[in-house]
Design goal:
37% of the residues lie in helices and 20% in strands. It is an alpha/beta fold and 249 residues long. The strands form four sheets. Strands 2-1-3-4-5 form a five-stranded parallel beta sheet, sandwiched between helices. It starts with a strand and ends in a 10-residue tail after the last strand. Bound molecules: calcium ion.
Length: 249
């Protein structure tokens, strides 16, 4: 889940970025309303966390312009304005949620998860495909009863693939979910994560084939890897199109 944070307090923004990244979000930060608006046009984040006291324009004005740009993109207001009328004004101007400062990090995370579940259409935050269950809130992946040890990025990659099971994921989509702008991404980094995911997740199969992106799907029984006993309900996370080709891999 890619969050754009529009916040002019650099220390707070840095703290939020670190904390939310630990929770599995990818966070990009801008410090002004104008920069925020430009970024939404070009980077299409999944959601925005918006401060109202910004140096160049009022946050409510930013909110209204964001709404015109992206009618359905979730926006959470995070602000020192804590009066009921401020909250009403924010929600009436198109915010999806409103959290006054000072706030508790756990509460912010919980509220972002609610928005995330609404976005992904998964009301129960667990995602299960076959015998594989991923618990976003606990950063846990289970194969049957067995816990799988995955790094943060491997977890995020698997989560993105499982949330979008059946849909082809392009390399650029995956990278935008896994990395923020200021992170250097080596050209083969995604392949390394996929390799590790395949190695570490054992019987979860990520199978490279000749195609251009990645897809996670429930394998039909006849399509299961021969190493997996038939009827085990195991899942093949299918890597379609990951060959070096059009995208300069
Ligand atoms: Ca501010």
């Amino acid at each position: 889940m890619h969050i754009l944070l529009i916040e002019d307090n650099a220390a707070l923004a840095q703290g939020l970025k670190v904390a939310l990244t630990k929770q599995g979000f990818t966070v990009n930060h801008v410090a002004s309303g104008q920069h925020g608006l430009e970024t939404v046009k070009t980077a299409a984040p999944d959601m925005v966390v918006l401060d109202l006291g910004l140096p160049d324009m009022d946050g409510l004005q930013v909110l209204q312009r964001l709404r015109k740009l992206q009618a359905h993109m979730p926006i959470l207001i995070l602000t020192a304005r804590d009066q009921v009328e401020d909250k009403v004004k924010g929600l009436e101007s198109g915010a999806d949620d409103y959290l006054p400062k000072p706030f508790d990090m756990a509460e912010l995370t919980a509220r972002l998860r609610v928005i995330e579940r609404r976005l992904t259409g998964v009301s129960d935050s667990r995602i299960t495909i076959g015998r594989v269950t991923l618990h976003p809130q606990h950063h846990l992946v289970k194969l049957g009863e067995e816990n799988l040890e995955l790094s943060r990025r491997e977890f995020m990659l698997l989560k993105t693939l499982m949330e979008n099971a059946g849909k082809v994921q392009t390399r650029s989509t995956l990278e935008s979910r896994l990395y923020s702008w200021d992170e250097e991404v080596a050209s083969n980094t995604l392949e390394v994560h996929i390799h590790n995911l395949r190695k570490n997740s054992g019987r979860i199969l990520l199978k490279p084939c000749a195609a251009s992106a990645i897809q996670c799907r429930k394998a039909p029984p006849h399509d299961l890897d021969p190493r997996i006993p038939r009827g085990s309900g195991a899942v093949r996370l299918h890597l379609a199109q990951f060959r070096r080709g059009a995208e300069g891999l």
